[in-house]
Amino acid sequence: MSGPLTRAAAAKVRELVAAWPDQPDHAELEALMRWLAKWRSQVLAQTFVGRHGAQIRAGLFAGMNYLPDASEGSLMARLLGTYEAELRPHIEALVAEGVDCVIDIGCAEGYYAVGLAYRFAGLEVFAFDIDETARAACAALAARNGVSERVRVGGEFRPADFEGFAGRRCLVMVDAEGAELDVLRPDLGPALAGMSVIVETHDVWRPGALQEIRRRFAATHAITEVHANGKLAELPDWLESLSELDMLLATWEWRHRPTPWLVMRPLAAAAAR
Q1: What is the CATH number of the domain that holds 180?
Q2: From its phi and psi, is residue 84 left (phi > 0), alpha (psi between -120 and 50) or beta?
Q3: Could you point out which of 30, 76, 157, 174 has its C-alpha 20 to 30 Å from the C-alpha of 241?
């Protein structure tokens, strides 16, 4: 089938190959491989939506109605419910410990912002993204799932803005492509000392980001480092009939390099339990 997605991918492949030197190196071959893998992942997502609709199949947000596109990263992994599944036990534990609001910085189209409001009744979510298109998608996703009254969408979030949540039992989630270093500044937002934080670190864009975040929070938080691993999923019958490569790509999250998470609990809260 040669639809618009396939034609666009083919054009990109021609562009990449045309720019190759006589002897392409590892980087050029990897770039080509990633484009082809993303194309196939998107084809699988389109097929999923065509057969099942845009509804998350399993995982933490099973049953949530989703959008037919993702602002960034793999839509297919989101629809299967395997996306960042490593965080599920940490999120569930933190919410069970008494979180009453979530600050989601870099919310994109709202996988976590809307998903957490959908999954946990009564949880208030404040979602932030500097991209206008992402903010509109997040608001649309909240409306689609009937949680608009508990998901407030805003633009840029600055370190001092944490002070507006001082005293609340907040879970802060940050996925900001390296800007975690600019946002998570306890020196400018002292209220962070009492908040739980899950942050995706991006040494790939900001070398040393992981260790610097560890350093900033070492005195106030217990820190657990979480790494991505292979995903297991209950696949639709049509997907199980495809190639093993397709089954692998279905759960691929499009990461360029490892981006481990830090799950950080306030030491004061841990001592009180």
Answers
A1: 3.40.50.150
A2: left
A3: 30
Is 82 within 8 Å of 233 (Cβ atoms)?
Answer: yes
| 78 closest CA partner among 252, 247, 260, 227 | 252
Q: How many domains does the chain have?
A: 2
Q: Hunting for tokens 């270093």 — which residue is that?
A: 181
CA distances, 114 to each of 38, 65, 199 (Å) = 25, 10, 18
Global model pTM greater than 0.85: yes
The answer to whether residues 117 and 178 belong to one domain is yes
CB-based contact 203:241 (threshold 8 Å): no
- Are 146 and 207 in the same domain? yes
Does residue 153 share a domain with residue 18?
no
Q: For residue range 130-141, list pLDDT tens digits in order.
A: 999 999 999 999
Question: Which H or E element spans position 42?
Answer: helix 26-52
Strands (E), the chain: 101-105, 124-128, 151-154, 170-174, 196-200, 221-226, 261-266
Low-confidence residues of the chain, pLDDT below 50? 1
Residue 86 half-sphere exposure, CB side, CA atoms within 13 Å? 19
Q: Are residues 83 and 43 in the same domain?
A: no
